[in-house]
Write a structure and sequence with these properties.
Elements: E1 7-11, E2 14-19, E3 23-24, E4 46-48, E5 61-65, H1 66-72, E6 83-88, E7 101-104, E8 108-112, E9 125-132, E10 160-166, H2 176-179, E11 185-191, E12 206-207, E13 214-226, E14 237-240, E15 247-250, E16 256-262, E17 269-273, E18 280-283, E19 291-297, E20 302-308, E21 313-316, E22 321-324, E23 326-330, E24 335-340, E25 343-344, H3 347-350, E26 355-358, E27 367-375, E28 378-381, E29 385-390, E30 405-407, E31 421-423, E32 448-461, E33 466-479, E34 485-493, E35 504-507, E36 510-514, E37 520-524, E38 533-537, E39 546-549, E40 557-565, E41 572-575, E42 580-584, E43 594-598, E44 603-604, E45 614-622, E46 638-640, E47 646-661, E48 669-678, E49 692-697, E50 702-715, E51 721-731, E52 736-742, E53 746-754, E54 769-778, E55 781-795, E56 801-806, E57 816-823, E58 826-827, E59 829-830, H4 838-841, H5 845-851, E60 854-855, E61 867-871, E62 887-889, H6 893-897, E63 906-909, E64 915-919, E65 945-955, E66 961-967, E67 978-985, E68 987-988, E69 995-1002, E70 1006-1007, E71 1014-1015, E72 1018-1023, E73 1027-1032, H7 1034-1042, ...
Parallel strand pairs: 13-19, 21-29, 34-40, 53-63, 65-76
Antiparallel strand pairs: 1-2, 2-7, 3-6, 4-9, 5-8, 6-9, 7-8, 10-11, 12-13, 13-16, 14-15, 14-17, 17-18, 20-23, 22-26, 24-25, 24-27, 27-28, 27-29, 30-31, 32-33, 34-37, 35-36, 35-38, 38-39, 41-45, 42-43, 43-48, 44-48, 45-47, 46-47, 47-52, 48-51, 49-50, 49-52, 50-51, 53-56, 53-62, 54-55, 54-57, ...
Domain Ig-like: 279-388
Biased composition (Polar residues): 1158-1174
GO cellular component, one term: extracellular space
């Protein structure tokens, strides 16, 4: 138990000890003797008590006093503890916190908040005591305990100091003063050792009294210190460099300092320290003058940030595994800690740093691992990585496939239990144990996943034909499919959708891409990134620079995001020599939330010079009382706590600032800025003391504290006195600020998304962006939100998504949530809140009523049906019906993520339009890992998806269904075998009542999965009903004739071709797009097909542009339902779809992002009704 540092000072009559470590009583011991506890007491003679924590660091500090501990635990501490050990509740020793603390085994431990550096409070400490063995539990109650040994004399050589000893009063009576008369602490003078002759050799000046540096009596160092951004740095400390770090001076209010006696010999090294800045070490240059002048500039301290996290591993017993975390920051981390299932691992045993190596694995070592990196400025924790350990002969994948139903074509009716579905089987996704190389790696060189190892082709009897289908029969461990994650989307103004044209996109301060003319962008996500942080910068200065955290699908594929940007406010002119007040508030008829006050002469150029003149000022405020602003809010409102956890914030407003020289346009910084927050705008009393000022770090997307608030009453008018929270800040290199409070009342809401309103487990959709906006209701009016406080977006996986939300366990309506879901820019539909059943919503009726579930059209049927709102009530663990979702407590995230399908959850679904896909080899487009290596795979090569469409024009009074039947044409392995079927319904031309057109997908020709030989797909286009082929585009016909073989086209009711190998364009009526994501490729190709061009996009069908084939379909009077309609009606009734009522006039989006008209299949043969599209 090492005594690292001791200093004795007198406060009144009490003597205290400052230290960073453990304290042991002793007499006249030298510091080196404390390294060996055996010198004092052997382990056989002593024993430690349990850990005690009777106080918390709120108020004045953390006081773990022995008297208080004895009061609560009278028989668990001995009369005279020999030593005391202190650590934080997160296992950090007191010696590593950097905090100023007091320790005395006779009195206890205490840490005072006011003695800590500005902006920092004491940690929460626990203590334990070392006692003579056998004394615990059988204490002798005496009035005074024995005196401790005299403390070590701390006097320097030739000087005097004070030694102290203390004793404890063992009486617990109310009149203990009468039982324990006399002093508890005694002191005596002591003399330091004799001084030795100083051996310091000074080429200039002479040694100082401490013999620690050279002293030049006649020399003076003058200078100034500038903080980041060139602003003056008042309160900066100048110290000797080295181990002593003796304080020399502190800068004044202008950042100036004066250092007499410093020798300018070119070797004198000093250091400057300032809160939230990096220490600056500098050498006083050589000079023969009597005065030296120095100008110093500090750099901003960068908080620790986790660049890469440990990854999940699967191993067998006896193998090895390595976990790594890569942490950035300035200064970097000086300590790493690794935890297993929240228990700190012994560093001395495992010898870890940023890498944890586990050798000869055992079954009990399975579980969650994470690292915690820290330095004197703070800490950061990584995400947990799961280690799965299996036995030597235990299979790491379940060989039996899971049930997975695929929908069959409408003319393949099977049986009453599953009329149009067939179980093709699916292997559970997840990692497994594969072959490992001999090197320990943070990331396995080759990843292994559970997948299908055996399949069989089966035949399904349909009306007039046999439908082949591939079924998985056995699963096993194999190499994972290489996938790429992509984010794409569109950046536009929040007010009028004006696109961000040719804007720059930055990641970690480096430009990685830019937006197109229409604001679109596409970025491949780098490997090992947990949080994708992108900043959108408008070089035209129309929009506020916007930093967004974009969730992406870690399994691969594309995720679409709409980026909303605030337009910059028109600049106003300020006089730099005057006090300027700027109000912050955008809601008409409401008082401002806050205001900024800039004092006179506080504008500075970037070189630190004071600016005098006119200042062009643009301040854009995001007012949370305006719900429409939530989509344009920046980042994801998270910060890193002192313990390293990423925690949520609740906003009271964000503001972006832009100060420039009115003439030269040079950016300006501001020294002293006051933010005055109107206390009347804070409706939650608990938020008043927790309110802080924050700035956004654009590289990490995390908010960092800039300042505190204090309460003050200010008289504004003669009889009006208002209370404000006032915070001080500086405006330097960062330009986006936030008025926020940390909020710990969090829950998770379980949401699942589906392909249709049948809500089948196998029809869940991955890669959907679920967005939740937290609303704070007005008192007494839960349906009328006062303001939004936070927003979050999550990507759905195979089991849906768990979206964080504020919640409350006291009031059900304290917080509400507004939830939406989108896929590729297409808004999904929420389940209706009127005339519905719990079976459709996925939530029991009792909970629906408690949460006040409401779809957006609940009170007004004219509104969109693409969102729902609920009251977010924290679940009551004592009520069985609330333990099973759809809302989970913060600590139950794992239960939410792993909840079975039968558990309660909220639902979204895609509006099922007149489109159907069937693949002989099943493949889920939102899950690249579901790709199967087979000759009949629709997409022959993963991560290189080629979408092909053919435009078909229909002359006739009805919109009709058109099918493409795709079979192998020229490859010996596939000739005559079915790849798949596509059904699509034609869309009416709004200007021509008897003309419609359809963009029909077909299987592209090209190389198959083995990349050995190309196959020209045999495509057959089959319109439903009485149709006759009128014509084929001349260029397409010429191409097919010139590229033999030529398919037979004797039947005029259809069109057959061997699809072209070349990517033809709109002149041929063929539209081909290749992309790394199948949905993206299809969306782009479909948009071009609608537009009838090779490079455009449209949401309106242009029936006369870029047509490949034209059919004329005769009018036929409907006298009875067709077999197709009967089957459709039977399926709808069987699968219970009440929410589809009244949808005949609903509009939907075609494909994944383009709009088209929706009509239920029951009305396909009814009279046409002209409708707008898009």
């Amino acid at each position: 138990y090492v005594l690292v540092k001791q200093e004795f000072v007198c406060w009144d009559t009490q003597l205290s000890t400052y230290l960073t470590g453990s304290w042991r009583q002793g007499s006249g011991l030298r510091p080196s003797e404390h390294n060996s506890p055996a010198l004092h007491h052997s382990e056989d003679e002593t024993e430690w008590t349990t850990w005690f924590n009777v106080d918390h660091p709120g108020g004045q500090g953390d006081y773990e006093q022995l008297d208080a501990i004895r009061f609560y635990y009278s028989n668990r501490v001995c009369a005279s503890p020999i030593a005391l050990e202190a650590r934080t509740t997160t296992w950090v020793p007191a010696s590593s916190t950097g905090e100023r603390v007091h320790v005395d085994p006779a009195r206890g431990f205490w840490c005072v908040n006011s003695e800590q550096p500005p902006g920092r409070n004491c940690s929460n400490y626990t203590v334990r005591f070392l006692c003579p063995r056998g004394t615990l539990g059988s204490l002798v109650q005496e009035a005074w305990g024995p005196w401790s040994e005299w403390s070590q004399c701390s006097a320097p050589c030739g000087q005097m100091a004070v030694q102290v000893r203390s004793r404890n009063c063992n009486s617990h009576s109310r009149h203990w003063e009468q039982h324990c008369a006399g002093p508890a602490v005694k002191g005596r003078m002591c003399k330091g050792p004799a001084c030795q002759e100083c051996a310091l050799d000074c080429a200039m000046g002479k040694p100082n009294a401490e013999c620690s540096a050279c002293h030049c009596e006649d020399h003076l160092v003058l200078g100034s210190v500038r903080s980041a951004g060139g602003l003056p740095a008042p309160g900066a400390a100048l110290l000797w460099a080295g181990n002593t770090q003796k304080l020399l001076a502190v800068t004044d209010h202008n950042g100036h300092f004066r250092l007499p006696g410093i020798c300018p010999n070119g070797n004198t090294t000093l250091v400057v320290r300032l809160q939230r800045h990096l220490p600056l070490t500098f050498v006083v240059p050589y000079s023969a003058e009597r005065t030296s002048v120095l100008h110093l500039k500090l750099e901003r301290q960068e908080s620790l940030y986790m660049q890469s996290h440990p990854e999940d591993k699967v191993r067998r017993v006896g193998q090895m595994s390595a976990f790594c975390c890569n942490v950035a920051g300035m200064p970097g981390p000086n300590q790493y800690q690794w935890f297993h299932n929240d228990t700190l691992l012994e560093k001395a045993e495992l010898q870890y740093d940023s890498t944890l190596v586990l050798k000869n694995l055992r079954l009990d070592q399975a579980g969650d691992y994470y690292c915690r990196a820290s330095n004197e400025a703070g800490a950061i924790k990584s995400k947990s990585a799961k280690l799965t350990v299996t036995g030597h002969d235990e299979p790491s994948c379940n060989a039996k496939p899971e049930t997975y139903l695929v929908r069959l074509p409408h003319d393949c009716f099977q049986n009453k239990s599953q009329p149009l579905y067939y179980n093709v089987g699916k292997c559970p996704s997840g990692a497994c144990v594969g072959r490992l190389d001999n090197w320990l790696r943070c990331k396995d060189l080759v990843a292994y996943c559970c997948g299908s190892v055996k399949t069989e082709m089966r035949q399904i009897s349909c009306q007039g034909y046999q439908l082949p289908i591939m079924v998985v029969t056995q699963c096993g461990c194999q190499k994972c499919i290489d996938t790429k994650a992509i984010v794409r989307g569109r950046a536009a103004a929040a007010d009028n959708e004006e696109p961000l044209r040719f804007g720059h996109i930055f990641m970690n301060g480096v430009r990685v891409s830019r937006t197109g003319y229409t604001g679109t962008f596409s970025i491949q996500v780098p490997l090992d990134i947990e949080r994708l942080v992108l900043t959108f910068v408008d070089k035209m200065q129309k929009f506020v620079n916007t930093t967004k955290i974009l969730p992406y699908n870690k399994k691969g594929g594309s995720v679409y995001h709409e980026i909303k940007m605030f337009r910059k406010k028109e600049p106003m002119t300020l006089q730099s020599s005057e006090t300027n007040t700027i109000q912050l508030g955008e809601v008409e008829g409401e008082d401002p939330i806050a205001e900024l006050q800039i004092l006179p002469n506080e504008f500075y150029r970037e070189n630190g010079e004071v600016f005098i003149g006119n200042v062009s000022t643009s301040i854009t405020f995001l007012d949370p009382r305006d719900v429409s602003t939530a989509s344009a809010a920046q980042s994801d409102l998270n910060f890193v706590s002192g313990e390293g956890d990423i925690l949520p914030l609740r906003t009271y407003g964000m503001f972006s600032v832009d100060f420039r020289d009115s003439e030269a346009g040079e950016p300006l910084n501001v020294g002293k800025v006051q933010v005055l927050l109107d206390l009347a705008q804070v409706k939650i009393k608990e938020h008043i003391n927790a309110m802080k000022l924050w700035s956004l770090n654009p590289n990490t997307g995390l908010w960092e504290q800039e300042g505190e608030f204090y309460e003050k009453k200010i008289r504004r008018r003669k009889r009006e006195e208002r209370t404000f929270l006032i915070g001080n800040m500086q405006i330097r290199e960062r330009r986006l600020f936030n008025i926020d409070v940390p909020e710990s009342r969090m829950c998770y809401i379980k949401v699942r998304t589906f392909r249709s309103d049948r809500f089948m487990p196998s029809e869940q959709v991955e890669g959907v962006v679920v967005t939740l906006i937290n609303m704070e209701p007005s008192p007494g009016f839960s349906s009328n939100p006062r303001a939004w406080g936070r927003f979050d977006s999550v990507i759905t996986g195979p089991d849906g998504a768990c979206v964080p939300a504020f919640c409350d366990d006291q009031r059900v309506d304290a917080y509400s949530a507004f939830v939406t879901a989108s896929l590729g820019g297409e808004e999904l539909e929420a389940v209706a809140s009127t005339k519905t059943t719990p079976k459709a919503t996925g939530v029991p009726q009792a909970l629906l009523s408690k949460f006040n579930y409401r779809r957006t059209d609940h009170d007004d049927s004219r509104l969109k049906k693409t969102a729902f709102s609920v009251n977010v009530a924290k679940p009551n663990s004592n009520r069985t019906e609330e333990r099973n979702g759809p809302i989970y407590a913060l600590e139950n995230l794992k239960e939410c993520e792993e909840a079975p399908f039968s558990s309660a959850h909220f639902r979204f679904y895609r509006v099922e339009g007149d489109h159907y896909d069937y693949n002989t080899v099943p493949f889920t487009e939102d899950d690249p890992m579901s790709w199967t290596e087979h000759y009949l795979s629709w997409w022959p090569k993963p991560m290189e998806y080629r979408a092909c469409y053919l435009k078909v024009k229909i002359n006739g009074p009805h919109e009709i269904n058109v099918r493409s039947q795709n079979m192998g044409g020229t490859h010996p392995q596939t000739v005559g075998k079915l790849y798949g079927i596509r059904d699509s319904r034609s869309i009416r031309d709004m200007k021509k009542p008897n003309v419609s057109a359809v963009c029909l997908e077909f299987k592209c020709s090209g190389m198959l999965y083995d990349q050995d030989r190309a196959d020209r797909t045999l495509v057959k286009v089959l319109p439903q009903g009485s149709c006759k082929r009128d014509s084929v585009g001349s260029l397409l016909q010429e191409y097919l004739i010139n590229h033999l073989p030529l398919a037979v086209n004797n039947d005029t009711s259809e069109f057959t071709m061997l699809s072209p190998l070349d990517p033809l364009g709109h002149n041929y009526g063929i539209y081909t797009v290749t992309d790394q994501d199948p949905r993206t490729a299809k969306e782009i190709a479909l948009g071009r097909c609608f537009d009838g061009t090779s490079d455009g996009a449209s949401r309106v069908m242009k029936t006369s542009e870029g047509v490949a084939v034209t059919f004329t379909c005769a009018h036929r009077k409907v006298t009875h339902q067709s077999t197709f309609q009967i089957l459709q009606n039977f399926t709808r009734q069987f699968l219970m779809s009440p929410v589809r009522d009244g949808r005949s006039n609903r509009r939907r989006r075609i494909g994944l992002g383009a709009g088209r008209t929706l009509r239920t299949q029951d009305s396909w043969n009814s009279a046409p009704t002209p409708r707008s599209v898009g």
